[in-house]
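Aim 2 progress update. The chain analyzed this quarter is reproduced below.
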Amino acid sequence: MPLRLRLGRVRLAAQRYTRRAVRWHDWGKPLDAAGALGVLPAVRQGNERFCVLALQHFKLDYNPALDGLRGVAIVLVLLSHAHVPLFDGAFFGVDLFFVLSGFLITSLLLLEHQAHGRLQYWRFYRRRLFRLMPALALFLAVYCLLAPLLWPGLDDVYPDALVSILYLADYGIAFFDSPNTLLHMWSLSVEEHFYLIWPPLLVLLLRSARPGALWRPIALLYLLSWLWRVLWVVQGQQFYEVFFRFDTRASGLLAGALLAALMQEKPQWIDWLRARLPHAMWLPLSIPLLMELGWDNQNALLWGLTLVELATLVLLVALQQRSGLVYEMLSAPLLIKLGTLSYGIYLWHYPVVRYLRADYAWPVVVVLGLLISTALSALSFYTLERWAMRYRDGSGSGSGSSGNHKGKADLALA
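Predicted structure tokens:
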């Protein structure tokens, strides 16, 4: 086949993919197809050399408001752990993280599967490992060194750290009261279990579902997840035994995955739903009312979590439009910075707040806790975590605007 004809076919295939990518969607800014399409080294076939366009990176455009949403979530979690009055239900902030994580991870997996017809499991797990483990390992190492000095009476420092680094804290807390001093590790375990299970399960759903109907089995899984949690509540299981477990808290992650599938497939009823988006904004506005659902309130498990998950979906849809009051509010520089560092802040804040809580009133705990946690998170992020991400991506250094865009994209998907 003549070289010119081959190159013409390659360009045609690239244009077809670009149209699919731009269709990503009317709801928001199109996928950066130019950034996703890269040129592989020239491949020799016979005596001819020609360039093959292929997908090298699977990433979404950076949306600063999503980091802002993370910033709101981490502040809510800190308010909860600082025991701030009127914020008993601020633990719902974790569910914002769950929905956002399920949405972003599933979007990336669907993008990769659309391009290649398969998922590279090792690549996915390797990227998750290099993004999450360095900061966690550093935090636990520092905790093991300082906790015996700060709390001399503790005798479970090292077992708690071991359970945490193995990502078993969710079931450990629910059934064995361990880890006790690292109670916040449960949500990291829930997300890690999702990362392990979801990619192969998603492939099975893609193979079994009709084209354009992936959202249906995911919606069924979301419904079953909610019913499973309700079942344990109705049977009288203790609040903490239901609250911390992956199998009873997977609904938030599945809600995000459902939105990712809907945004790719665009079923016919989506336009009807989009037209009524302004009315759905009442859901996020109702979240402050849930602050009354404090710890041990079974209503939080029955319908509170579900309301927060649905409200987060509404926010995510609104933020894809990259305009409007909500987008501008969540794009505030301070919120973006907090969101960028939210993973590290989450790791460090609990022992910091726990230590401050013993001697100071809640306003001091909130201010000092946030400042100290942010400083420790920044130190970790701009040293160890940056190095790990560069090593993961196979580039020792980055420069120029393209490097900055890539770094922002990584932050958006972390």
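Strands lie at 37-39, 43-45, 48-50, 53-55. The radius of gyration is 22 Å. These observations will guide the mutagenesis experiments scheduled for the next reporting period.
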